[in-house]
Amino acid sequence: MAQIRIHGYTDNLSVKAGHSVTAHISAEGITQVQAQLVRLIHGDENPQGPGFIEQEMEADINRTWPVQRQYVQAGNFLRVDDPQGRLNAPGAITLHAFIYPTAPAPGRQVILGNWDIERRCGYALGLNGQGQLEFWLGDGQQVDSVTAEVPVLAKIWYFVSATYDPVSGVATVHQEAVLNRYNSLLSKIVPMDYHSHVQTRLRVGAGVGTGFLIAGAHDRNPARGNFVAQCFNGKIDRPGVVGAVASDDMLSQLRTGHPTHHTATLAWWDTSVGYTDHGIGETVHDSGPYQLHAQGINCPVRGQTGWNWNGRNDCYRLSHQEYGGIEFHEDAMTDCQWAPTFSFLVPASLRSGVYAIRLRPTDEDNHPDAGAMAEEYLPLFVRAAQPKAALAMLIPTASYMAYANAQLTFEIPVAQSITACVPVFQPQDIDYYKNGLEFGLSTYDSHRSGHGVCYTSRRRPIINMRPKCRMPGVAWPWQFPADLSIIAWLEKMGYDYEVLTDDDLHHEGVAALKPYKAVINGTHAEYYSEPMLDATEDYLAEGGRILYLSGNGYYWVVGYKPDMPWIMEVRKLEAGSRAWQARPGEHYLATTGERSGLWRHRNRAPQKLVGTGFASEGMDESVPFRRMPDSYHKSVSWIFEGVTEELFGDFGLGGHGAAGIEIDRYDLTLGTPPHARILATSEGFSDNYPLVQEEIMYNHPGMGGTQNPGVRCDIVYFTTPQNGAVFSPSSIAWGQALPCRDFDNPVSTIMKNVVDAFIQEGELPGMAYSAEEKLWR
After folding, report:
1. Which of 121, 253, 514, 692 sits at a 20 to 30 Å CA gap from 85?
2. 3-state secondary structure 425-467
3. Are the beta carbons of 366 and 420 closer than 8 angstroms?
């Protein structure tokens, strides 16, 4: 019987009670799905914990829905707005551009043109399967081309052009390197012949194409309809079209990067125009006579250096003329754009919490060989229409997006060295990877060109943002399913709590946090925008209370696209634990205009807000904590009421301990408040926990957990103005220790003491005591 695959997403992850969300679903092997709203309680199937827990809820969407397979447009490109078809009219033509190919072969790639693959009609300038510059055209029956003698090299800037005279049939292609001391991989000392100029007489003319594209060509098939293929890998700068055969003088002028102002100019897209101090959008402006502007699809990457970058300026805000490079990738994807399957009006009475739309085959369609993808969950974080609870959990959706569909366990050889274990894959992982499902990559992956992925999106199926999912490298939950252990603890303790997300925090600022006396972070709140960080600081300064349950939190600087808030951008710079590194000159976010990289390197280390910051990561095993002398002072001893052990947390669903996976520590040199108390610190880690890279000035032996005192995890507590406070266990594994022993354990006891105190009005316990020596218990 046929294998069944069900995939989907919702237009928003966060929704207020009384508002609607829309589900977009694709299915293979079936024509209908059974939908069921569920409340998610615990997402880990590990038998050492409570197991997977969901509660079915009454909802009007609980029924069967017709579904069909929906397809994904992979690859980014520019679609030119040419309603009068000025670029489709057959006639004499010159195409030109600066290009920086990143993966010239194999496979045909279009630079610009109106080529229609299925109809074999139109014209294009591009690269053939051997990486050679080629101009081709077709009349719907036959195709002919002219090809350069030498292939282009990856990571070299070229000026390329093609001319065609339909009267004589003569066509040319021309390429030459435009190297300077900074812009390309190789310098001028390499005795390489980059130049080629070829002229030939073509046997066929150009038929009318489908529509002008930059970095792609039109195609179609009966199942999926129209789509774009043969996408370019690399950067394109200042492309243009002239409605005549350019003379040598005109080509020389075009090679300078300036428009010719020739009467025959049809279009000249000035890719360096449009930058502001706050970034740049998706429109590429045509400065030609007809204003044939182009729109980016799947977020072609802006803020990239162009052919004339001279190495002096590292940001487009300083010299936008040097940032005309727009980078394209054949495997980029930021919006599935699937047709909606149904909408769900969240009942106004529905309690705030973590929910999902569960999708399964109907009983008549299900069978034993349906496969791992025959069940799907579409998570929903339901906010209160009017906040009433004193306690909220802040769901780290920015970090969920950063890791969305991460393939690093498959693709990065060093992954096993990081995790110190053989990867353990679930059937879903293998099916997704083996079948090449094109749901986009994570910011931990690289495009086929080798360049890192800087954009991520929530408008696509995210297979690792599902309950029951386990991180392949370590075989325990990561991110969303790990955070459900905190949700399960809140439910078990009977707290009245609400949820909100990073998306809400980014767009609403401190107003999203102000209704709550206390806010709990998730296990790995690693990715933060400036509005999110500002809101957190303001909340604490105005009397808010935060339980920072993350390890390696508040780490990477991210930005959201203002006009497409489902898309997030990050650039990994010269430091930090990173899967890739941005090229020189490409360190600023195109979405916001700000420098990306680590918050620490913008003088906003996490220690300044929550007392601790990233110290190490390791996935071999987690360890327990040991109480420190500070924990016995009367100002904080209440936190340990009911805990008799000096050593606690030698258990957990994340590495069998409460301190581990990714860990943070106290550091006065990075802004830990001087009055903060170290309540406990971890027992020794193995050498699989090395000191974080950003703290290594000189590399030498002794960086591992058995030797370096900086490799540790600290539990820190301190007060803030207006009766505010921060409690920081500083470990990813902490939240996954809470459910152990049926939630009856020292980690749970400590958490309950803190939460009970944090949700009360007025002064916190212990605030009457000073730091005098006599106040030690």
Report:
1. 253
2. CCHHHHHHHHCCCCCCCCCCCECCCCCECCEEECCCCCCCCCC
3. no
Q: What is the pTM of this model?
A: 0.96
Angle in degrees, CA 527, 760, 610, rounded to 5 = 25
> Residue 776's pLDDT is what?
57
DSSP secondary-structure letter at 582? P
CA-based end-to-end distance of the chain? 69
Which pair of tokens denotes residue 715?
A: 């539990």
Q: Are strands 325-328 and 301-304 parallel, antiparallel or unpaired?
A: antiparallel
Q: Using a CB cutoff of 8 Å and minimum separation of 24, what contacts does 493-496 make?
A: 493/743, 493/748, 493/752, 493/755, 495/391, 495/755, 495/759, 496/388, 496/389, 496/390, 496/391
The phi and psi torsions of 418 (rounded to 5 degrees) equal -70, -45
Residue with tokens 């802004």: 671
Confidence of residue 775 (pLDDT cuts 50, 70, 90): low
Return d(Cα 660, Cα 689) in angstroms, integer. 9
CA-CA-CA-CA torsion sign (151, 152, 158, 161): positive
Can you give 7-67 as a three-state secondary structure string? EEEECCCEEECCCEEEEEEEEECCCEEEEEEEEEEECCCCCCCCCCEEEECCCCCCCEEEC
The DSSP symbol for 231 reads: -
- In Å, the largest CA–CA distance within the chain is 100
Spatial distance between the Cα atoms of 11 and 416, rounded to a whole number of angstroms: 35
Alpha-carbon distances, residue 210 vs 112, 122, 226, 517, 710 (angstroms): 13, 7, 11, 59, 61
Helix and strand counts by DSSP (H, E) for the chain: 11, 42
pLDDT tens-digit series, residues 324-366: 999 999 999 999 999 999 999 999 999 999 999 999 999 898 8
pLDDT of the residue at 407: 84
DSSP annotation of 742 reads G
Q: Is 721 exposed, middle or buried (0-12, 13-18, 19+ CB in 10 A)?
A: exposed
Element (H, E) at 254: helix 248-255
Question: What confidence tens digit (pLDDT) does each residue in 240-260 have?
Answer: 999 999 999 999 999 998 876
Tokens (6 digits) for 681: 């610190």
C-beta separation of 636 from 681 below 8 A: no
Under a CB-based contact definition with an 8 Å cutoff, are residues 549 and 729 in contact?
yes
CA distance 562 to 236: 24
The owner of tokens 């009017």 is: 386
Residues 6+ positions from 195 with CB-CB distance below 8 Å: 150, 175, 176, 177
Residue-wise pLDDT for 269-318, tens only, equals 999 999 999 999 999 999 999 999 999 999 999 999 999 999 999 999 99
Could you report the per-residue pLDDT of 357-397, keeping only the tens digit for each? 999 999 898 888 788 789 999 999 999 999 999 999 999 99
